[in-house]
Amino acid sequence: MTQVEISAVIFDYGGVLTNPVRDSIAAWLDRDGIDPASFSRVLKAWLSRSAPVGTPIHRLETGELSVAEFDRLLAAELVSLDGSAVNSVGLSERIFAGLRPDPKMFALARRLRRAGLTVGLLSNSWGNSYPRDLIDPLFDPVVISGEVGMRKPSAEIYRYTLDLARVPPEAAVFIDDAEPNLEGAARVGLRTVHHVSAAQTMAALATLIPGLDPEP
């Protein structure tokens, strides 16, 4: 059976088009004096594969929970190293304050677009802001979970993105740094690339898209 030619590449945002999210989180934990173990417990309870449906993170990502209310719920679960109360005001903003666009990944997206491919973005949002001045001229479609009321890894958000991109799943590649999101995309029929570094992702795409130079 002949493999369908790739005509679209869909990127995650945080941790793919930016520096690693873990770096921003580590800087926030240190800056705010938060016990890392307390944040890890929250992530396991609210975001892991075993987390029940409808956790505060799930509801935040689908826009059902306001950022301010989420920050209050999260602050109540965190433990500070000095025993003081964790400040909930602007908490999510502080967590992601260290995210910066990765020039190599944006350059890759521009190369793909110049090659005639559809270049889209699909991101789960924690209510954080996106550099729309960089994103909007380059990515189409742009799907943000909180704006559409769906979140990865549910099948519906991948199908919604594919419909906007006007491509079948077998003609699209999805790039993400989180395995559950890649597994969700694969179940819908997309080909996937697990992002670890810009160089690795470029090399992986070069094997899927004939004629794409793996070097910038």
Descriptive overview:
The structure is a single chain. The chain is an alpha/beta fold. The chain folds into two domains: 8-19 and 100-208, Rossmann fold (3-Layer(aba) Sandwich), CATH 3.40.50.1000; 21-95, DNA polymerase, domain 1 (Orthogonal Bundle). The protein is 45% helix and 10% strand. It has eleven helices and five strands, in the order βααααααβαβααβαβα. The chain has helices spanning 21-32, 36-47, 56-61, 67-77, 91-95, 103-114, 132-135, 145-148, 155-165, 179-188, 198-208, and strands spanning 8-11, 118-123, 142-144, 172-176, 191-194. The radius of gyration is 18 Å and the shape is globular. The chain starts with 7 loop residues before the first strand and ends in an 8-residue tail after the last helix. 34% of the residues are buried. The mean pLDDT is 95.
Tally of domains = 2
Into which percentage range does the β-strand content fall? Answer: 5-15%
Low-confidence stretches: none
Class derived from helix and strand content: alpha/beta
CATH overall fold name of the largest domain: Rossmann fold
Give the strand order, joined by hyphens, for the main sheet. 3-2-1-4-5
Sheet of most strands: 5 strands, parallel
Radius of gyration from CA coordinates:
18 Å
- CATH architecture classification of the largest domain: 3-Layer(aba) Sandwich
Order of helices and strands: EHHHHHHEHEHHEHEH
